[in-house]
Amino acid sequence: MSIIKVADFEIKLSDPRDNMQKYAPQVLNPKKSIDFFLQHPHYFVAFNELHLLMVSSVGGQTELLYQIEPKLEELTQVLAYGWKDLIGVFIQRLAPYLQSIQEQVTSISGNDDEIKSEIAQRVSTFMQNPKNLFQIVGELPLPMLCLSQKSIPALLSKYILDNYRKYCNGINPKSNLENYKKIDDSLFYLYNAKVLYPMFSTSICTNRFEPHLDFIFSDRPLREGTCRYCNAPLIVFNHYIVAEPYARLKSEQKDISYLIASYLSIVTSRALECYPEILIKDLREEEQVDVFIRNWEKDLTAILECKIRENSDSTIETKKNIIKTDVIQLKRKMKNLAVNYGYLVTNLVFNTKEEKDKLEKDYFKINSNKKKIYLIARVGNENLLECMNKIINDLGAREDSIS
Ligand SMILES: [Zn+2]
């Protein structure tokens, strides 16, 4: 365990590799992808025994989903079987091959960017070799092999669509087509930032009479396009694997701490020094803190607690009860560590500013002139990172225009 001394505090890093500089800055312009980090791990596809986390996305001509969906249903109904189980088996069989490629590459070279592009290249080469595909498919249980050529891409598309709906509902239970597009864009953005890499893609064309289906392995996800048989616009389905260390941080619900620490540090040109996921030792007490922030110059300190709930859109009564408990914990840490500010960051969404202000007024009082405690949460469609301006101002820093 390494220890960093910051004024009166001793900061213990339990794992020196958990180093913000190495991980979080890869998410360039996090305002575009913040929803991913506010999402509870429950909304991802997880194979815990393989330590894999995946996410699905649907894009292209999604306005015509209503027209295509009955066709997908029809094609997937040819099976009396639980098709979800079969697709699960397929993905589980495929995953270790991808993981072993990732491990081989990681053990031979050093630079992060080089490693990632090497992985993408090897995955793509692996997938394009029919012998390898046969190896995976050949290991599948018999019913999977009996599927017609059309059924496999249809099943996979349906699997991706169902997972994507679940993911979108986790971000916004009132999700509509517009949200679908926005969320698909933000996942593509995370692919560009190398947080996600594509496992496979499928597409279905919007030909009203005879939609054509395709199943593609590639190191690039499918975006929009037209059918290679009939030129009709495509609806595209992508299944991504969440790259390390993001998968592990997401499963442990620590990714949001890294993102916020990185964001605050970068937009203030490091006027704010931020330490995510650390143990801090004051004179007597030791506390685990999600993010510790200090402005050296102004001699101000703050701690952030990040709480990601499975249901971000609960009733006001539920929100009250959740927040009441979280505030008690935050106040205890503030007292033990003698910091100036405490912030409770949550993915809960408030319908109106009044609703949020009232809750803050009722529960965020503190009997000290020198200490202040606040709630950082979204009202409606607000971007949570915009709400961080409060922290930047409180701690006497300013946001640089280059952000
Ligand atoms: Zn077509």
Topology:
Blueprint: E1 2-6, E2 9-13, H1 20-23, H2 34-38, E3 45-47, E4 52-60, H3 65-76, H4 83-108, H5 112-128, H6 130-138, H7 142-145, H8 151-171, H9 177-192, E5 196-205, E6 213-216, E7 234-242, H10 246-251, H11 255-267, E8 273-281, E9 286-295, E10 300-307, H12 316-337, E11 341-350, H13 353-363, E12 372-379, H14 389-394
Parallel strand pairs: 10-11, 11-12
Antiparallel strand pairs: 1-2, 2-8, 3-4, 4-7, 5-6, 5-7, 8-9, 9-10
The structure holds zinc ion.
Residues 205, 207, 212, 227, 229-230, 232 line the site of zinc ion.
Short description:
By secondary structure, the protein is an alpha+beta fold. It contains 14 helices and twelve strands.
Q: Which segments are poorly predicted (pLDDT under 50) over 5 or more consecutive residues? A: none
Give the overall shape. globular
Instruction: Give the integer mean of the pLDDT values.
Output: 83
Total strand segments: 12
The largest sheet, given as strand count, sense and whether it forms a barrel, is:
7 strands, mixed
- Whole-number total of structural domains: 2
What binds here, in terms of ligands, is: zinc ion
Strand order of the largest sheet: 1-2-8-9-10-11-12
| Rg over C-alpha atoms, rounded to the nearest angstrom | 23 Å
What string gives the helices and strands in order? EEHHEEHHHHHHHEEEHHEEEHEHEH
Please give the share of residues in helix: 40-55%
Description:
Strand 1 (2-6) and strand 2 form a beta hairpin. The strands form two sheets. Strands 1-2-8-9-10-11-12 form a seven-stranded mixed beta sheet. Strands 3-4-7-5-6 form a five-stranded antiparallel beta sheet, sandwiched between helices. Helix 3 crosses helix 8. The protein is α+β, with helices and mostly antiparallel strands and 403 residues long. Helix content is 43%, strand content 22%.
